[in-house]
Amino acid sequence: MYEDEPTYRDPLDDIEELLAIRQYSPTFW
């Protein structure tokens, strides 16, 4: 669907990354 948008990132991926950072690095916040 977004094959023509190589720079497109799924917002869910960003959320998952933030959750992972928050989980493994609570001091990040």
Task: Estimate the mean pLDDT confidence.
Answer: 73
Helical run tally: 1
Q: Approximately how much beta-strand content do the residues carry?
A: under 5%
> Could you give the count of β-strands?
0
In percent, how helical is the residue content? 40-55%
Quaternary: single chain
Residue ranges: pLDDT <50 for 5 or more in a row? Answer: none
Structural class: mainly alpha
Number of domains: 1
Element order: H for helix, E for strand: H
Largest beta-sheet characterization: none
First-last Cα distance? 34 Å
What radius of gyration results from the CA coordinates? 13 Å
Shape: rod-shaped
Structure description:
This protein is an all-alpha fold. It has one domain. 48% of the residues lie in helices and 0% in strands. The chain has one helix and no strands. The protein has one helix spanning 11-24. It is rod-shaped, with a radius of gyration of 13 Å. The protein starts with 10 loop residues before the first helix and ends in a 5-residue tail after the last helix. 0% of the residues are buried. The mean pLDDT is 73.
Quick tags:
29 residues; mainly alpha; 1 helix; 48% helix; rod-shaped
Topology:
Blueprint: H1 11-24
In short:
This protein is mainly alpha-helical. It contains 1 helix and no strands.
